[in-house]
Amino acid sequence: MTSQQNLSCDELLTTTRCVRRGLDLERAVDPELVKECLRIALQAPNGNNRQNWRWLLLTDPRIRADVAEVYRAAFHARNAAALKRLDELPEGTRSAITGARLLADRLHRVPVLVIPCLELPDGRLPQGNQAGVWGSLLPAAWSYALAARSRGLVTAWTAVHLDREREVADLLGLPPTVRQGALLPTAYPLRTTFRPGPRLPLAEVLHHDGWQDSDRT
Ligand SMILES: Cc1cc2nc3c(=O)[nH]c(=O)nc-3n(C[C@H](O)[C@H](O)[C@H](O)COP(=O)(O)O)c2cc1C
Fold first, then answer.
1. CB 3.0-4.6 Å disulfide test: which of 111, 151, 165, 215 passes with 29?
2. Residue 4: inside a domain, yes or no?
């Protein structure tokens, strides 16, 4: 089942990208391989080891098409203004948004969609800081993405459908106690090598021993 890519740990961590353009939409993905990745994801940390994560694995073409339709509507509602003035955007932003539009347009053709969810006792998210809640799901979701990559698959981290979370929940029959954290389209890639992405240098984002650290003055 496992088709390991033999990436070093650092390569895996630095080159696992959000792949939107280079998805092989013709190649089927075995759901058992996805489950193998999800079993690995279940080793992630989570609050009090309660494991109130829930995972939706969508492979049925009709269900994927329904979810993709909601995703597309959410994407276009959110990005309408930016899509109208693409020419004015900096190259990096323009490329990201046109890639995101392409993914939105073709989402129904991506063979596997994974939606990591949390089951909350009363379905309500806290008013204040939600890091403790989402911290019990998102590390596992990223572990899923890494496990998938190390098996030759790629994913794209997406969340724009959360603007219409209830519509997706209704399509999938989720009870109100279940909240969605992301949507990870999963497919084989058209190419297998990826590079580290553009990121700010550490010095620009690191505060050593307090916010006003001496390194930044
Ligand atoms: C919380 C979160 C939400 C995101 N939502 C979307 C999305 O809805 N659609 C999309 O195409 N990409 C989405 N992305 C992907 C980011 O745009 C992407 O990670 C970023 O452009 C950097 O690309 P890289 O991860 O390949 O370096 C999301 C990423 C994160 C972490």
1. 111
2. no
